[in-house]
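User: Reviewer 2 asked us to show a designed sequence for the structure in our supplementary figure. I'm pasting the structure tokens here. Could you produce the per-position amino acids so we can include them in the response letter?
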């Protein structure tokens, strides 16, 4: 589904990614771990097209998207839940969800039932402004907005950051359910190893813009992951 092949990414003279290769398959969760500042968010920005790569290629569903725009990637079915949520605080919950309609044909512009079954609080708060929601509710809204796009690839950038434990469990259950549908690939950027181990089918650890450890769940070496995270 997603094949990131040996990409580099620069911000001016600074190199953020160095030869990164990553795959994400339908019905699987690929977890990207690492400390702050190692390039995890830069990797997602490269995949979504917010920053052009300076070397390497990105293929999605058999199509080379390396030079396509963010809008085109959204139309291909790539959706992101950004770090910090980035919901619209002055728009209602319903209006925030409807912003996910943008890349969809007109006959698909409705909110899927799964959004409200996964996050029932959103149905109860459709008329509330996004800025009035708690941090955890805003995170649920951000995930719901991404699901409105009917993604084939869902990118999640630290969805547990600053969230209360009960909401973290809800988000974990939602990711597990979405994987079970077997109609999308999921890339989860995470700092918490326990959460990643619970959900990840593949785990990679980044440091200084490079991947320093990679394994599927069956062959994962927890001690090696912890060493890589401590680099």
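Assistant: Here is a per-position design you can include in the supplement:
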């Amino acid at each position: 589904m997603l094949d990131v092949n040996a990409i580099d990414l620069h911000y001016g003279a600074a190199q953020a990614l160095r030869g990164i290769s990553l795959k994400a398959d339908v019905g699987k969760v690929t977890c990207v771990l690492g400390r702050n500042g190692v390039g995890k968010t830069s990797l997602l920005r490269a995949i979504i097209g917010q920053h052009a790569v300076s070397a390497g290629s990105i293929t999605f569903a058999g199509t080379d998207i390396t030079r396509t725009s963010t809008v085109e990637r959204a139309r291909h079915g790539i959706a992101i839940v950004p770090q910090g949520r980035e919901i619209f605080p002055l728009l209602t919950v319903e209006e925030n969800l409807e912003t996910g309609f943008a890349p969809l044909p007109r006959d698909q512009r409705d909110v899927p039932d799964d959004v409200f079954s996964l996050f029932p609080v959103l149905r109860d708060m459709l008329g509330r402004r996004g800025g009035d929601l708690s941090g955890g509710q805003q995170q649920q809204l951000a995930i719901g907005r991404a699901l409105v796009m009917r993604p084939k690839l869902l990118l999640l950038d630290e969805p547990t950051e600053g969230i209360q434990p009960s909401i973290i469990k809800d988000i974990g259950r939602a990711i597990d359910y979405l994987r079970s549908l077997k109609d999308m690939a999921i890339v989860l950027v995470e700092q918490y190893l326990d959460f990643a181990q619970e959900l990840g089918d593949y785990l990679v650890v980044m440091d200084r813009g490079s991947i320093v450890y990679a394994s599927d769940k069956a062959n994962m070496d927890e001690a090696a992951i912890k060493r890589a995270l401590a680099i």
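For the response letter, you might also mention the following. The chain has nine helices and ten strands. The CA atoms of residues 88 and 130 lie 6 Å apart.
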